[in-house]
Amino acid sequence: MAKARLIGDRTNKMMVQAMERRATDVRGRVFHVTLLVTLLISLFILAVLIVDVVIDSWGFLTGRPGGFLSGTMRSLSDDPKLGVHQALVGTFWIAVFVAVLAFPIGIGAAIWLEEYALKNWFTRFIELNIRNLAGVPSIVYGLLGLFLFVKSLEGLTGGKSIASAGITLAILVLPIVIITAQEAIRAVPQGLKEGAYGVGATKWTMIRSQVLPYAAPGIFTGTLLSMSRGIGEAAPLLLVGAVSGRLGSDSGFFDLSSVTAEHFMAMPVIIVEWVQNSGRDPGFAEAAAAAIVVLLVFVILMNAAAIILRNHFEKKRG
Amino acid sequence: MDVTDTRIDPAGELTVESLMANPRQARKERLIRDSLGATALVSVLISGLIIWSLFSEAWTFMVEVDWGAVWDIGWFPRRGIYDIKTLIAASLIITGIAMVVAGPLGLGAAIYLSEYARPGVRRTLKPILEILAGIPSVVLGFFALEWIAPNVVKTLFGGPAAGSLLAAGIGVGVLVIPLVASISEDAMKAVPMSLREASSGLGARKLTTTVRVVLPAAVSGLMAAFIVAVSRALGETMVVFMAGGAAQTAVYTHDPLDGSLTMTAGMTSLARGTDNVVGEGLTFQSLFFVGLVLFVVTFALNLVADRFVHRVREQY
Amino acid sequence: MRLRKLLVLIIGLMTAFALVAAACGNDGDDGGTTPSTAGQIESGGESGDGSQSAAGDEAPAGSVSGSVTISGSSTVEPISVRVAELFEDVQPDVHVTVDGPGTGDGFKLFCEGETDISGASRPIKDSEAETCAENGIEHVELRVGIDGIAVMTGESSPVECVTFNDIYGLVGPESTGFGSWADAGTLSGLATSSLPDADLDIYGPGEESGTFDSFVEIVLEDIADERGQDATTRPDYNANADDNVIIQGIQSGDTTFGWVGFAFAAHASGVKLLQVDGGGGCAGANADTIASGEYPVSRALYIYVNKAEAAENPALTAYVEYYLSDEGLGTAVSDVGYVTLADDAKGAARANWAGR
Known about the structure:
The complex is a heterotrimer.
Chain A: H1 9-21, H2 26-63, H3 67-70, H4 85-116, H5 121-135, H6 138-152, H7 154-157, H8 162-186, H9 190-198, H10 203-232, H11 235-240, H12 267-277, H13 283-317
Helix pairs in contact in A: 2-13, 4-8, 4-10, 4-12, 5-8, 6-8, 8-10, 9-10, 10-13, 12-13
Chain B: H1 16-19, H2 23-64, E1 74-76, E2 81-82, H3 84-116, H4 119-134, H5 137-157, H6 165-189, H7 193-201, H8 206-217, H9 219-235, H10 238-243, E3 250-251, H11 263-271, H12 283-315
Chain C: H1 2-53, E1 66-72, H2 77-90, E2 94-98, H3 103-111, E3 117-120, H4 126-134, E4 139-154, E5 161-163, H5 164-171, E6 202-204, H6 210-226, E7 238-239, H7 243-251, E8 257-261, H8 262-266, E9 271-273, E10 275-277, E11 282-283, H9 287-292, E12 298-306, H10 307-312, H11 314-324, H12 326-335, H13 343-354
């Protein structure tokens, strides 16, 4: 061992490698394998989860192709008209609210924090506040929605409506949008900004022409992630009053009056609803699995797109 | 780009005026700055609203409630029995089980990805872990109830095939694995390469380097990972609501094979049930009281975790 | 380049999926009319059947449109919902909203003219009828089904028959903490049968369930009122929303006690359905004794229809007639787990409607 210090790096490395290659290092190998196994367990759980859901839902999805997406909520699981249409409409509108409210506000806040804010206690306070908001349990946002949008502002939102739910979820994902957009903006090279100033650009022109285009993929990744979080979230919706039981009628996707109508349904909530119904009618467990498959298609595709996008730009920009 | 507007003297002379912005431009700039600033303030407004909504209702509860009802045999909010220890006990059991599952699995995965995995392997495995992170919690609730309960809780622990604290705890554990893994991996990646090289240079094996050098150096970040995961597990709702094995009410229990309600599940099932929160006078307010307890606890944990993360940044 | 292809693929898949969903949805809306015209002929015949025998003169020919508002008992709500689902399949232009805040709250709304139909798990009270009359609201009472609750114990339990007092002693509000059947006899001033000194584990639906409410209202309420107690159960029992779990709990011991809706218990094995004595002697639970009212843990379910509205609103008339047809009183009632009326009671309901 003592000799190792006397020889060069290259030789040292070779020696270390040779030592590691030796079969005598049983503990090292066991450790290595154990670590790999822990990781594989997680991946195995993911695989089991997906296989389990697909198997449970198989009969439902193949038995009524198309019908499941256009069907509505029914009392019996073997009703041929059972389906998720109302839930898809609700989730669609929630996504609209998230996109319209959380994205512009979140990206605007990120630009201000990175480009305009002075590095003082107030900025630090806002940033700490945003990090804390990101860690607040989702159900607490549900309480906020219940108190503020369902009770206090009932006249505006229509009470237990899709509008209350949409605003609540937009607030819930806002910190994620801000934090991811901040990271994307922070990664913009200083040189680009200075270049823009150098040719006489104003601050906003510089941001619009240099910062935003460069940060766009990162910002987009963040919005994808927050959207997938938003459409998969159930707890706040249960507090804001996604209906249990019967919805008035099934409205189309673009029926604006449904936004402030009392009662709504959304994909994650219909899953909960059907899992609970399976206590008296076991067929609803399969219906829930089928609804999960529909939800997962959206969520996994969004996540995958975000991950691929991020990895690509990370690699490209080193 | 809007640069033609600068008032450079045609003769090429640079005057003080030419360096000043055009007033209209300056007004526009100020307007943009201020509206962006306003969007940043929205987050402060939201925090304020959360605290206001929790406190205003919880305050009514705390003033008017008979405190004997807050320490009773169980959680029966519609009858005016608001035993908070039932909910806290269940929350702690769920969190404990979740950390037993997610701690080793998440940390192991993080060490592997950070220290052992070849780049190609890492590029394949890490995204899959990130997909797991994106699975909505209702899906894990379903999985905990329909698969973990009959296949793990019943066969390995002899518990019920239906919902129980153990089934829900394992489900929550699976949910926080990616969180533990990702923060821990970041912490280990932040350890400078020179430490590892120095260790190898002294002839230490990879195992020794990892366990004796990298892990101790990353300990603040690992603590942060652990605390954030605890906070997340305490706040997790849907898995417990769906697979926790209790409906609406719960008698105090500390047996993981029983069903019970956590703080989050207690709130959810109270707000749901029928269409409105009805019951004894303070039933509605009790929602906000429990919410406030949960908020304060998770807030404190997040602050502590934030400190630890900062320490990592300062160290290296 | 590979990245761009992947992204295009993913975004394409997502859009395709969303389009399919939207298209199918619209399909459902448009298609909703197509199959329903077909269904209409079929059920036009059926509901014609019901109305010919009952109302005769005003059988709805063809489709109607309009809306129907229903509130009232949460126990009746599932029947009205199921009827509405089936009805909207044949009359897609009628919108039926159903709510279930409770029988009393339902009558309040009904007597203010806010709702067209009120579900009730008991006949209207005189005071409520007076309010209705003051507001000029005339109603017709229709019996639609029977809610029966099975009271159960373990298969090899020595107990065969219990009285309402026994049940009150076992699970009523004063029994908190009781661990033995014999403890029920220790409540002062409550006459119980002699119950064995055996372990008492109780399984039942949670407070949110309609079965819980029914059980309390049928068995416990009167005794609790007499004794000056809240009408509820003891809190310390195994409450579950899943009827299967309740049945499994009752199976798990010899001297367990529990209750679920009769329809669910009827085909459960490993449990013993107790006979119940509601003052008229022990009676076992089966479809006949429940339909006849001989089994005491049961009660009739009603809907009350606003007469004036029914005269004006063809959608309401069509809905009620569908309710009274075999799809309603037969299929829908048994679909949601209640006991259907005997044939003469069905006939009486139809006659009531015809003679309104």
